[in-house]
Specification:
Elements lengths: L6 H12 L6 H28 L5 H23 L1
Length: 81
């Protein structure tokens, strides 16, 4: 798989490799993606569990939907810059 990074993303990754945070750009990308997947999985799992036990009301679900939409827009805004 090939992923095209913005110059800013590449510079950030290279800086963190140079500082010793990661062994390589590829390692950094894999670890960051793994961390984000785990974060999203945990968040989604908690929301599903709350729904299953009836802890979330309609207002809560609306707030979750708005937050997810805002996160998507923020991510897209960063990609377009």
């Amino acid at each position: 798989m090939r992923i095209d990074l913005t110059p800013e993303q590449e510079a950030w990754l290279r800086a963190h490799v140079a500082s010793g945070d990661f062994g390589s750009v590829e390692e950094a990308a894999r670890r960051l993606i793994d961390d984000r997947i785990a974060e999203l999985s945990a968040s989604g799992r908690a929301q599903r569990e709350a729904l299953m036990v009836g802890e979330l009301g309609e207002d809560d679900l609306d707030a979750i939907a708005r937050t997810e939409m805002a996160e998507r827009h923020s991510h897209l805004d960063r990609e377009l810059k």
